[in-house]
Design brief:
Largest interface: A-B, 53 and 64 residues
Structural class of chain A: alpha/beta
Number of helices of chain A: 20
Radius of gyration of chain A: 23 Å
Largest sheet of chain B: none
Number of strands of chain B: 0
CATH class of one domain in chain B: Mainly Alpha
CATH topology of one domain in chain B: MetI-like fold
Strand order of the largest sheet of chain A: 2-1-3-13-4
Oligomer: heterodimer
Structural class of chain B: mainly alpha
Distance between the termini of chain B: 30 Å
Distance between the termini of chain A: 68 Å
Number of helices of chain B: 16
Largest sheet of chain A: 5 strands, mixed
Number of strands of chain A: 15
Chain lengths: 458, 317
């Protein structure tokens, strides 16, 4: 000491700072061994949740038994959603790192199809009898703009209103609550606020920290219930353009604004905490500190035995109601659906073997086991009609029923950016930094940027 | 990139004896060349490795900063010239990130880590040995902790049900959600907490090198503590100050994990410094080309700071 700063040293130091941002992916790719199929999947960031690990371990055993000499290598990627996508996309870019089978969120599948990361599965599907068992909307979820199918869905999800019966009783609200309009929802929340202090009346996910949960569980559950309730309010399929913010969009923002302005929702700072979703499922609902939660069908998977937050009594303590349309217009209720699919990377070394693995996963018995294990909603008719599936868990019937009136996002390549633009608009009205009009204008700007100006006004 | 740090500004070149006057004119030039080549031989493997693993990726980054490369959603990328840079300067979120990066750097590095490190080093010279060991231990622990762990600790400290608010409640002072109301201040404080040890170590070493006679002489002449600090100590350790400022600044400019864990750049981008902005663009919005252009701009800011410090160092006392 003291270290003399030399030019070389400075340059080196600054360069290292940049090098740390360079884009590297690691891991070895598929195809080095023709007898091993490499399967990448998203491992829960919560160590106590092993639903998928257990399921895939079981399938691996079945597969290796049925295909002597073949091996399955499970490659878990442990990351939150957004980082999982990034990691996966980096792996898919090169044959050195691409696995044989990947678990793709339908949220990004079209984007990855456009990038040429995935292999069309039509030749395989044509020869696979079980494919006819899948319901049409699910088949469409993994279809590219070129009309070819790039993934086999392993279930879907729907969304609705969960409410605490205890809180409702204390507030003098009915235990069989079924709101008909948005105003009914807000009225119930206002009653809870007045009668049950210390309880958050209503949670609607919002803002960028919540990510896609804000867009899908929050905003779209409102937006798709505006206007006539049947046409897509975000994307115009006939002109292939995105729709700028209109009345329905502003009304949905106004709903979010009302929730946070009247303090019917959680504290704004809590709502914008990236870990708030975990808190809703793990603490607020089980402890009866939340009146109404606008959330997804998968919540019970956190409450199953062995999951870390066991709550077997949930079905007695929580009620379920469909999210109503804005003014009760037809069809009266709204739901959004997403889900995940199994896809084969374009650069996979053993695609045939990978499809064999999909077939093993998707026997009726295995599919059913999976839906039940992860609180998923069946996308196979044969399973959906099976009483063993319907009775397996409380809530399954309610959420499977919603499939009828559900909407799928326009998951085209620009969608992830559009989704961020929606989150930003929501965040603006949540914090009160922006008025509804300002937020809607900001969305229009961001939409133009995100879609190369492929925007229509309706 | 090296253009921003021209090779002739280096202090070691300035200090080097100006051209050996006694060089025998008769010596053939080729001999010198051969000799320097031979001398370079032992370091060449290291140079090759550096070129391969450091310069290579950086050159690649420079190239993709001029393309519209995306992580997903695009069949083929194309060359777009300066578009990414133009876009950055039109982008309000980018300008916001530049501003926050400067605030974060000035607050936590220039003012926080640097001054506090110097103060701690000066105070610890007078402290008793046990106090010195204890303080040193605590400060260095903060430095040794991995960034993410430090981030979680400070998240727990600042959050609404956190330690800071518990203390404030106990003192009957108003508490608030610091990560929400003053996010940039909270993360700056976190960076000070984490990085002060380094400054303290640098300054302790520098202070130890000041000959005792000089300070004693000043004391005999009746100079007060403050005057001795201002007129003797600071000028004598100015070289260390420069080094320390430069290292701190560059380190602070690239802080990512700490802020990511504490606030993820939020709320509404109020703590989104350039590394977080870059991450969001490159990996969340999949805009690798744009994100890399932002990384290059960050590098430029780092280089500007470096040049300023090097200039300061050059002036002789």
């Amino acid at each position: 000491m003291p270290v003399r700063p030399t030019v070389r040293f400075t340059a080196l130091f600054t360069l290292t700072a940049l090098a740390s941002t360079s884009l590297a992916a690691c891991g070895s790719g598929s195809g080095d061994d023709p007898d091993t199929v490499k399967v990448s999947f998203k491992q829960s960031t919560d160590n106590s949740i092993k639903v998928m690990d257990t399921y895939l371990g079981d399938i691996k055993k079945q597969f290796e038994k049925a295909h002597p000499g073949k091996k399955v290598e499970l490659v878990p990627i442990k990351a939150p959603d957004s980082e999982y996508y990034t990691k996966l996309q980096q792996m898919l870019r090169s044959p050195k790192t691409a696995p044989d089978l990947v678990y793709e969120d339908t949220f990004l599948i079209n984007s990855d199809i456009t990038s040429g990361y995935l292999k069309p599965l039509d030749p395989y599907l044509a020869e696979w009898k079980d494919w006819d068992r899948f319901i049409d909307t699910a088949k469409a979820a993994a279809k590219g703009e070129d009309g070819r199918t790039y993934g086999v869905p392993d279930g879907t999800d729907t969304r609705g209103l969960w409410f605490s019966k205890d809180v409702f009783a204390e507030a003098g609200l009915p235990a069989d609550w079924q709101p008909k309009t948005w105003d009914d929802v807000l009225a119930a929340a206002r009653t809870i606020k007045e009668k049950v202090p210390g309880v958050t009346p209503l949670n609607v996910y919002t803002g960028k920290p919540a990510g896609e949960a804000a867009t899908m569980q929050g905003f779209q559950m409102l937006l798709y219930g505006t206007n006539d309730g049947s046409t897509d309010p975000l994307y115009d399929r006939s002109s292939k353009k995105w729709i700028a913010a209109g009345q329905g969009f502003e009304d949905s923002l106004a709903f979010v604004e009302t929730v946070y302005e009247e303090k019917l929702g959680p504290e704004v700072s809590d709502a914008l905490d990236p870990n708030f979703g975990t808190k809703v499922r793990g603490e607020l609902l089980p402890q009866g500190k939340l009146g109404i939660a606008l959330d997804g069908s998968w919540l019970p998977q956190d409450w199953l035995e062995g999951s870390g937050h066991e709550w077997p009594e949930w079905s007695k303590e929580l009620g379920l109601a469909a999210m109503p349309t804005q003014n009760g217009q037809a069809p009266g209720r709204v739901s959004m659906s997403g889900g995940w699919t199994w896809s084969i990377p374009a650069k996979a070394g053993n695609p045939d073997l990978a499809f064999e693995f999909i077939k093993t996963m998707q026997t009726k018995a295995n599919a059913q086991k999976w839906y039940v294990a992860n609180s998923g909603i069946a996308v196979r008719e044969d399973v959906a009609q099976d009483p063993a599936y319907v009775d397996a868990q409380p809530g399954i019937e309610f959420f499977t029923d919603l499939v009828e009136s559900t909407h799928y996002r326009p998951a085209y390549p620009a969608y992830p950016k559009v989704s961020v633009a929606i989150q930003e608009a929501m965040e603006g009205v949540t914090t009160g930094d922006l008025s509804v009009e300002e937020a809607a204008r900001g969305y229009d700007e961001a939409l133009k940027e995100a879609t190369d100006n492929q925007v229509v006004r309706k | 990139m090296t253009a921003a740090t021209p090779p002739h500004t280096g202090p070691e070149l300035r200090k080097a004896p100006s051209a050996p006057p006694a060089a025998p004119p008769s010596r053939p030039a080729t001999g010198t060349v051969r000799r320097s080549l031979l001398r370079a031989l032992p370091v060449s493997p290291a140079v090759v490795l550096l070129l391969l693993f450091l310069a290579g990726p950086i050159a690649y980054c420079v190239v993709i900063a001029f393309t519209d490369l995306q992580l997903t959603g695009q069949a083929e990328e194309s060359f777009v010239g300066l578009e990414n840079f133009r876009r950055a300067f039109r982008d309000e979120a980018f300008l916001n990130a530049v501003w926050l990066t400067l605030v974060f750097t000035v607050l936590s590095s220039l003012i926080g880590q640097n001054t506090l490190g110097l103060a701690l080093a000066a105070l610890m010279r007078r402290a008793s040995k046990p106090v010195r060991t204890l303080t040193g231990g605590i400060v260095v622990t903060a430095w040794v902790l991995p960034e993410v762990v430090a981030g979680f600790l400070l998240y727990a400290f600042f959050r609404r049900e956190g330690t800071l608010n518990a203390v404030l409640d106990w003192l009957h002072l108003p508490s608030q959600n610091w990560l929400f109301t003053l996010p940039i201040l909270a993360v700056s404080f976190a960076n000070v907490w984490r990085g002060t040890a380094f400054s303290m170590l640098v300054y302790s070493a520098a202070l130890n090198e000041i000959p005792k006679e000089i300070t004693e002489a000043a004391e005999v002449d009746g100079a007060s503590g403050w005057r001795r600090m201002w007129h003797i100590t600071l000028p004598m350790i100015r070289r260390s100050i420069g080094t320390n400022l430069m290292l701190n600044t560059l380190q602070t400019l690239s802080v990512f994990g700490l802020i990511w864990v504490m606030t993820r750049g939020g709320p509404s981008g109020k703590s989104q410094t350039l590394p977080l902005f870059m991450y969001e663009q490159a990996f969340q919005n999949s805009l690798i080309g744009y994100g890399t252009a932002v990384a290059l701009l960050l590098l430029l800011i780092g280089s500007l700071f470096s040049v300023v410090y090097l200039r300061l160092l050059r002036t002789e006392v």
